[in-house]
Amino acid sequence: MNFRKASALAAAVVALSLTATACGSDDGGDGAGNGGGGSGDGGGSTVTIGIKFDQPGLGLQTPDGDFEGFDVDVATYVANELGYDAEDIEWKEAISAERENMIKNGDVDFVVATYSITDQRKEEVSFAGPYFIAQQDLLIRADDEVTDVEQINDLNLCSVAGSTSAQNVAEKFAPDAELQEYGGYSECLTGLENKAVDALTTDDAILAGYASQDAHAGKFKLAGLELNPEHYGIGVPKDDTELRDKINAALEKMVEDGSWARFVETHFGPAGYEAADAPEITETD
Amino acid sequence: MFEFLDLERYDLLGAFWVTVQLAVYSAIGSLILGTVLAAMRVSPVPVMRGFGTAYVNVVRNIPLTVVIVFTSLGLFQTLGIALGGEGFTETNFRLAVLGLATYTAAFVCEALRSGINTVPVGQAEAGRALGLTFFQVLTLIVLPQAFRAVVAPLANVLIALTKNTTVASAIGVAEAAYLMKSMVENESDALLPIFAVFAFGFIVLTLPTGLLLGRVSKRVAVKR
């Protein structure tokens, strides 16, 4: 039974990835076609994109060296629209604290790495998008229930040291909650499983990625609270309006042709994540 | 240039105070444990010598991050050992002190053992000839001279320990490196100045330690 389920799932994944690649190469053709003059410098050259290498569901390096995740799919789609084939993409790891510097130094062409649009960051870089609005949420054990924000004060929470999510807990919605902080989210999952903590809190997209991992399947679920929105954008060099507008156009197309909804379903669906509509593009000027 | 340094929002002094507390408690703990270990390594009992050697060689070769994260994930979250702490903040602080002391003790032990080697063997033999026990020879004759010889190496260990306290942020102890992470997250337009502030803070802590203990080591050294 388990084997059958697994093989059915595998078949579904293969089918999805086949359709994804098929549609990807179509778009590539389109891009080259209508790109015309633009494809002159794009043809044959490569594009370097900064992504997370360690974020399940968003940007994760697989054991065989490939990358998978929502951010990876979005980045691939955008790169296709800009006239680059999937094999012309060079992935680079973008650690959270280094993202601004990578863009400023020209190490990457753009960054798609759970990059929240904030005024602080706009001092250093420009954004396209947003392409996703994540809500801060709780990941709880599958047999637990948290229905409203008031309850959070009685919980033992876990998050990453110094992260915006961790700071929000103390400063905004649960000043009385106990907060355990670690260097990464994986450490929190141990405590959550052992009942040393009651919930792991950060953006729902990140949580959904962890809950969808094979090792944790069925153990955890999202509480479904909307605690604090984070607008994920694509980071581009400051005031590079041309690139930003091209990426915005690509993102709009991605939503229109249904690719966005499919990416969301593929990567966050298994955790019971219900996506709202795709966000409006706001980073136009 | 330093306008990001909003001291009402970021408790810089409080964070460095936690760093100092971590360093002081861990230093005391590691000094006691390290002395016991050094005594074991020179003791006439083979089992104790073996244990001391094994401890030093195992613990000093494990990365400190692994030790610290293990105290939290292994001892606290899995085995439920909270060291009597109420709430995560207190428990994590105590776990961090335990981890830092356990780790640093290996280095204190080795520094002290080198100090024991500076005491001429004839003195220990003379003590034995007078009928003193091993424990008496160690505490009355050898260790007092050994400590006076190793003040400078122990100052090195203490400075390393002070900087190693930054690893405690891996289990959420709100010390200086933890505050730095929050500031890096919020003030991403001023990364280098933030690093400069914290580097300066640590120099303020460790430079006087080194200078002071350097002078102490000259004053107390046994002139042979």
TrEMBL record, chain A:
- Source domain of life is Bacteria
Going by the UniProt record, its keywords in alphabetical order are: Signal, Transport
InterPro entries the record matches: Bact_solute-bind_prot3, SBP_3_CS, Solute-binding_3/MltF_N
Q: Which family does it belong to?
A: Belongs to the bacterial solute-binding protein 3 family.
Q: Per its UniProt record, what SMART domains does this chain match? A: PBPb (SM00062)
Is Transmembrane helix among this UniProt entry's keywords?
A: no
> What is the protein named?
Glutamate ABC transporter substrate-binding protein
Record-annotated Solute-binding protein family 3/N-terminal domain positions: 46-271
Check the UniProt entry and state the signal peptide residues, or none: 1-22
Query: Species name for this entry?
Result: Streptomyces sodiiphilus
Spell out the Gene3D superfamilies in the cross-references.
Periplasmic binding protein-like II
UniProtKB/TrEMBL annotation, chain B:
Q: Which PANTHER family match?
A: AMINO-ACID ABC TRANSPORTER PERMEASE PROTEIN YHDX-RELATED, MEMBRANE COMPONENT OF AMINO ACID ABC TRANSPORTER
Pfam families per record: BPD_transp_1 (PF00528)
| Membrane topology recorded in Swiss-Prot or TrEMBL | Multi-pass membrane protein
Taxonomic lineage per UniProt? Bacteria, Bacillati, Actinomycetota, Actinomycetes, Kitasatosporales
Boundaries of each ABC transmembrane type-1 domain copy?
16-213
In terms of superkingdom, the source organism counts as Bacteria
Q: Does the keyword Transport apply?
A: yes
Stated name of the protein: Amino acid ABC transporter permease
Q: Keywords, A to Z? A: Amino-acid transport, Cell membrane, Membrane, Transmembrane, Transmembrane helix, Transport
The family line of this record is:
Belongs to the binding-protein-dependent transport system permease family. HisMQ subfamily.
Q: State the compartments where it is located.
A: Cell membrane
* Keyword field contains Cell membrane: yes
> Which residues are listed as membrane-spanning?
12-42, 62-83, 95-116, 128-147, 190-214
